[in-house]
Design brief:
Layout lengths: L3 H20 L7 E6 L7 H14 L3 E7 L7 E4 L3 H13 L5 E5 L7 E8 L6 E10 L4 H18 L6 E5 L4 H13 L5 E2 L10 E2 L1 H6 L4 E3 L2 H13 L14 E4 L7 E4 L5 H16 L2 H14 L2 H10 L1 H6 L14 E4 L6 H10 L5 E5 L2 E6 L4 H10 L8 E2 L1
Helix pairs in contact: 2-8, 4-5, 4-9, 5-10
Length: 395
């Protein structure tokens, strides 16, 4: 048997070896993430320093630069033309030489959109913006429904087991809310957030952007893109993006490569954060998780819900016949939760059923106004016609 002195020496050698391994970044397998360096509006040094900073922060991360030769100790695959650079990037991803890549100005197919990550200024919370580039669908409401799923997938891959979801108060927000509620009632788990405003609800206002009321903020890609630029550069005047983790990974059915997008104005801190974002998605097995979540959504009726959003049959029915208003009544009961573009059609649906109604605009958006005692029946009619959720939103 070993004496106590020998045991102590052996323990000391083991601890020293473990410490050295951790310090040298040899503790566990490395995650290799590419960074393309052509196409930035800033000097290449900002990208290189961002890559070096990411490696310093994460001992399990290796960054491979793809672009012109630069002064750095990082591995570099030399390429001097942007189109060729992306070909090399895709080849390296397909061959497993890198597991993910961060790049700029990359085109995804229709159906794939990116999920950005920001830190909100109100409370310093991280928030995923779904989505920020790309197009999930050519129809707005359908795209936003998919964006919600893409945001959930990304948040889960980043370690948030049950991410909360909010829908930014844009055109189609109420349609999207109803569609997601249907998906949820069919068995797909969605955890809706509550607005910080006194009237609450899962449709988010500007205040909620600043406070980060939801883990996942659902929007269309163009609005999300603007939001990312504001969140990233509001402290710098706009020409240098210093905050957040960039526009994020392309998510969508059939997307095999983990490719994250940066703005051409991304500075050193954003580059470093984006590379860490990429490594975390690899560790979170985002591609496998994406396949599982989309399959669950399909089982909950996603495809039929999206088809319903494409048809816009309500407007066709409304133009089939001229509907006259019933005798006028005093209208003090308000029903909200209806898309602004559908508000006049919703009024005519009630007229057809003999209920006098008017359209209006409340503090949270458009409303249908009816007599107080007609509110329950009106909600029932509008829900059946697909203009509000089952119980409606009564102001």
């Amino acid at each position: 048997m070993m004496d106590r002195t020998a045991i102590k020496q052996e323990i000391g050698r083991t601890l020293l070896s473990l410490t050295e391994s951790m310090e040298q970044g040899n503790f566990g397998p490395k995650i290799r993430v590419g960074l393309t360096t052509l196409g930035s509006e800033l000097e290449p040094i900002h990208l290189v320093k961002g890559a070096e900073e990411a490696v310093r922060r994460s001992t399990d991360l290796e960054v491979v630069l793809i672009g012109p030769k630069v002064e750095t100790a990082l591995e570099t695959v030399e390429v001097n033309e942007e189109t060729e650079m992306h070909k090399v990037m895709e080849q390296m991803l397909d061959e497993g030489k890198i597991q993910a890549c961060v790049t700029m100005h990359y085109n995804f197919p229709i159906g794939v959109a990116t999920v950005g990550k920001v830190v909100t200024p109100g409370l310093g919370r991280e928030m995923f913006v779904a989505t920020t580039t790309g197009t999930a669908d050519t129809q707005r409401a359908a795209a936003m429904v998919k964006n919600a799923l893409y945001g959930i997938i990304t948040a889960k891959a980043m370690g948030i087991e049950k991410p909360t979801v909010g829908i930014l108060n844009l055109d189609s927000a109420r349609q999207v809310e109803r569609a997601l509620n249907t998906l949820k009632s069919n068995g797909y788990e969605i955890n809706f957030s509550e607005s910080v405003r006194s009237d609450g609800g899962s449709v988010m206002r500007g205040n909620d952007l600043l406070t980060g009321s939801a883990d996942v903020m659902v929007t269309d890609s163009l609005t999300g893109n603007i939001m990312m630029k504001v969140f990233s550069s509001y402290t710098t005047g706009g020409s240098y993006e210093a905050l957040g983790a960039g526009y994020g990974p392309g998510i969508g059915e059939g997307q095999q490569r983990i490719v994250l997008i940066l703005s051409r104005a991304s500075g050193t801190p954003v580059v470093a954060n984006a590379l860490q974002y990429a490594a975390s998605l690899v560790k979170g097995n985002v591609q496998s998780l994406m396949a599982d979540e989309l399959e669950k959504a399909k089982k909950a009726g996603l495809e039929s819900i999206l088809e319903g959003l494409q048809k816009d049959s309500k407007k066709e029915k409304a133009t089939e016949e001229e509907i006259k208003a019933p005798p006028k009544e005093i209208v003090t009961g308000n029903i909200s939760g209806i898309e602004v573009m559908d508000i006049d059609d919703a009024v005519q649906v009630l007229w057809k059923e003999g209920i006098y109604a008017e359209s209006g605009m409340g503090c949270t958006g458009p409303v249908v106004m009816v007599a107080e005692d007609k509110v329950p029946k009106s909600v029932e009619i509008l829900a059946k016609a697909g203009y509000v959720a089952g119980e409606g939103d009564v102001c």
